[in-house]
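Kindly review this record before class:
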Amino acid sequence: MAARSSSVAPKTTAKKAAVPLAIDTALGMMGDKYTLAIIERIYQNNAMRFLGLEQGIPGISPRTLSIRLKQLEKDGLIHRQAFAQKPPKVEYTLTEKGIALAHAIQPLSRWAVQYHQPVAEPELALV
């Protein structure tokens, strides 16, 4: 019997270190529901208060908004400024990193406006 030619590379048993892709890292930071909407609203208005964000983002609950704002602040995308006054006033602005993200998502927003086709509600058959 003739020996087989080894044109196929041998299998390696060592696992490669898992290196996250840059897009995975970005999506991890902004992939939660409402996160991009928050960034976009603050970018459009330069600064926003909690109630303005809550009213400007359909469907978001105060709890979810609070959680997202805390995470965005932790990620360095927004800055929270509390003013010492009665009643208390807090404004949210984008950091340099947040502004860069807002610029990056603008093409995605334009794409959504151009290609989004609302899904028609199925008509219910009355039998």
About this structure: The chain is about 45% helix and 10% strand. The radius of gyration is 24 Å. The first strand starts at residue 78 and ends at 83. Helices lie at 22-30, 35-45, 50-56, 62-74, 96-115.
